[in-house]
Amino acid sequence: MQKRRYFRVSLGWQIIIGLVLGIILGQIFYHNKAVIQVMQNIGTMFISLIQMIVLPIVISCLTVGIANMGDIKKLGRIGLKTLIYFEVMTTLAIIIGIIVANVTHPGTYINIHDLQSSDISQYTSSAKTAEHGGIWTILMSIIPTNIFAAMGKGDMLPVIFFSVFFGLGIAAIGEQGQILTKVLDATANVMFKVTNWVMRVAPIGVCALIGVTVGEMGFEALKPLGLFIVIAYGTMAFFVFVVMALVGRIFHVKFYELFRIIENEVVLAFTTASSEAALPKMMDKMQKYGSTKGIVSFVIPTGYTFNLDGSAIYQSLAALFLAQAYNINLSIGQQITLVVVLMLTSKGMAGVPGASFVVLLATVSTIGVPMQGLTFIAGIDRLVDMGRTAVNVVGNSLATVIIAKSEHEFDEEKREKYVASYTRGD
């Protein structure tokens, strides 16, 4: 008997369908607080499911990867390469954002008095912390006094710090540590299986999250800031498909092939505006694509803190947009200062809810923009956040492959087999 062939809709298309339905529902129930609250609750539950599995995957994969690596000198070399690469790429993203803002002048086409203000009080305290914090504050926050407290708060850097040392400790005791390696390896495999189950409800979560955004804002709120949104997305697209593609070519990475492999995760990150939503599947796919577990488990979680290219583009664009809207003419020296301030502040605010907006709050005062100015773009922050989150995910996948290749820990034969099976839809 011939088996029946069923039409199968990929996860990416399911998420896009959820996105469209969310937009429709948001418009239908525009300003309907009861329905918006229901959608908010459903969206929050989906994000909570993702957050539930992220840290177990990071801890288990990173610890096993470092234990298998077993060489502190090699780890130091990989860490240094990774951080230099991240710094170069984010600085390049900031500079491109500033250049685009200087060329297009989006702020000169709006009247600041025509914009609606939004409440930004939830970001203010975090911004004050960023203003008074320095490099020592950042370094001290990396070392956890209580690893369980850090896990409970979802602080990624302290968890990475602990996992690295735990992995090195396992490697140092030799054969005795093998039982822990096996347990943690099994834990990672279990959590990847749980991830596959959670992803089945992703379209519902996406539908709810988008519905909330549209239901609260409506399309009318976007019109005055439409040009800024278009320029922001255009700049992000240029950075991904031109700058990242060129960087990939320099390091002999097939960028467009890589993008096709992670397209579902990019769509998921875009629609949820959450990097964490894509992290579990990203780590799984990058290993299958050819990178070793040690590289993947170190580069991707670290990149979610230090390699935020989309956020860097948005912050530089938004800062100059507001300066132009207030008729503040910035000299070359002031713009260079802005680049340096964004480079430092963005690293200190990683992991804070609404981090990109918090960085802006802590930065714009250095160029004379009134704090009130940010209330005018707060309403569209979620919409732009979708784009910058997607860029961040692409940037971290590219970084993983580049670092793996630089360490000769990328399996081309494994990549070819995975690409072939992925293309067939296995």
From TrEMBL:
Any GO BP annotation: dicarboxylic acid transport
Name of the protein: Glutamate:protein symporter
Chain segments annotated as transmembrane: 12-30, 42-70, 82-101, 133-149, 156-174, 194-215, 227-251, 326-345, 357-380
Bilayer topology term: Multi-pass membrane protein
Primary localization: membrane
Keyword Transport listed: yes
Protein localization: Cell membrane
Organism listed in the record: Companilactobacillus ginsenosidimutans
Pfam families per record: SDF
GO CC annotations, alphabetized: plasma membrane
GO terms assigned for molecular function: symporter activity
Keyword entries, A-Z: Cell membrane, Membrane, Symport, Transmembrane, Transmembrane helix, Transport
Superkingdom of this protein's organism: Bacteria
Methyltransferase recorded as keyword: no
Entries under Gene3D superfamilies matching the protein: Sodium:dicarboxylate symporter
